[in-house]
Amino acid sequence: MTGSGDGDDSLERALADLRALYAELALEIERAGVRCALRGACCDFASAAHVLFATSLEVEHARRNGGAAPAPAAPSACPFHVQDRCLLRAGRPLGCRVYFCDPDFAERMHELAARYHDRVARIHEEHGISYEYGRFVEMIRRPPRARGAIG
Cβ atoms within 10 A of the Cβ of 85, count? Predict the structure, then answer.
């Protein structure tokens, strides 16, 4: 990623807004009292028949906060889910942040996911960041684009 200019500044501001949104979400989830056994089962999306989606800005955030994606065990598996642990805790996208095995949280999870996704989309729009929404596993495997030209 090269260059500096308005595109870079917009991207950096968008990433800062995304981090602030994630921090706000973490507080809301904490207040909700979600139970987590830290066993990694909720991250096994294939077993749960769950597909993780993310926006182009979230993928950029993941790249910056988790490094290159390691080779997955299976083509559809998240490359960061290794031995029942997430190697991308700081960089994980919204879908990971709201998804819990706690059945008492299921209804609230869907409401939070929709509400916060709308806000992620607004961050894209407010900062002029190209919006793409797709399967996280496929998007994270693509070669990164030039800084300021994500999406």
Answer: 12
Structure-token pair, residue 113? 């996911």
Q: Which H or E run includes 14?
A: helix 6-32
Per the structure, the count of domains in the chain is 1
Strand locations in 18-149 (E): 53-55, 81-82, 85-86, 133-135
> Cα separation of 52 and 45, whole Å?
7
The pTM of this model reads 0.85
What tens digit of pLDDT does each residue of 18-31 get? 999 999 999 998 88
Q: Which pLDDT tens digit goes with each residue over 42-83?
A: 777 777 777 889 999 999 999 999 867 666 667 677 888 888
What does the block give as tokens for 86?
């997430």
31 falls within a domain: yes
84 part of a folded domain: yes
Domain that holds residue 56: 6-141
| 150 within a domain of the structure (yes/no) | no
Residue 137 CA, distance from chain mean position? 11
Instruction: Give the integer Cα–Cα distance in Å for 33 and 143.
Output: 38
Question: Which of the 8 DSSP states describes residue 128?
Answer: T
How many whole angstroms separate alpha carbon 58 and alpha carbon 124?
Answer: 10
